[in-house]
Amino acid sequence: MSLINQVIQSFPGLVAVKKLSGEHVVVNESYKxxxxxxxxxxxxxxxxxxxxxxxxxxxxxxxxxxxxAALAEPDKMKTSIETFxxxxxxxxxxxxxxxxxxxxxxxxxxxxxxVKTADKLNARLQHDDLTGIANKTALMQRTFNNNNTVVYLxxxxxxxxNDTFGHLKGDEMLRKFALHINHQxxxxxTIYRVGGDEFVVVFExxxxxxxxxxxTQIRHNIEQDxxxxxxxxxxxxxxxxxxxxLSGALESADKLLYMSKQLRRNQC
Length: 268
Hints:
Elements: H1 3-10, E1 14-19, E2 24-27, H2 29-32, H3 44-50, H4 54-72, E3 78-84, E4 87-98, E5 101-110, H5 112-125, E6 134-135, H6 136-141, E7 148-156, H7 158-165, H8 167-184, E8 190-193, E9 198-204, H9 208-223, E10 232-239, H10 246-267
Parallel strand pairs: 6-8
Antiparallel strand pairs: 1-2, 1-5, 3-4, 4-5, 7-9, 7-10, 8-9
Helix pairs in contact: 3-4, 7-8
């Protein structure tokens, strides 16, 4: 076995060399293992037409897209991610020359554990350690549309909980409150903890009047529940639109929250 063949076969992943027209000319054993037949001389389309495994077909369709991207910029080395079942692959494609002919080389290796670790880290970065709900980072990274309404929500009488019962009890109330609100929301609505006792709820496809009615009912139930130790909350809301940013919507909702809190104090 030549040195180059030893390198190809010992590579800890998949190796394939194809003509620019798509026919396979060199593959290693790992690459062969995906197919129940010899792929030499076959294009990805040829293989797709012969194979029945839908998961392998899905992988090959991903490869077709990434092959086309590499061919579109032949002077660059292209890196991409492909998935097969629960496995993630990082792939590098580049154009090489041999004897005056051009070929596309593919090197691909398993990065599943790396992806899982990154996903876990990202999940931790986007969730509040105390309550387990989404945090401000997650809020700022999400996308919005005209069907969203942003609600700024702030606890009332929370300082009294900390002063009377201590911060551990205060933390317990924050967790209890966050989980209670979260359980009252629909699957497509999301609550975020953005500060000490401040939260933002993003509603999807529901009008401001119904949101106001729903939150008012939730607040009433909390106020009547002795387990919440007398806490309540005030809120302000603002519907998203093309001409306002998230920061602008939050600022508007925060102003309405402050007005609501003052009004509620005056009524006491």
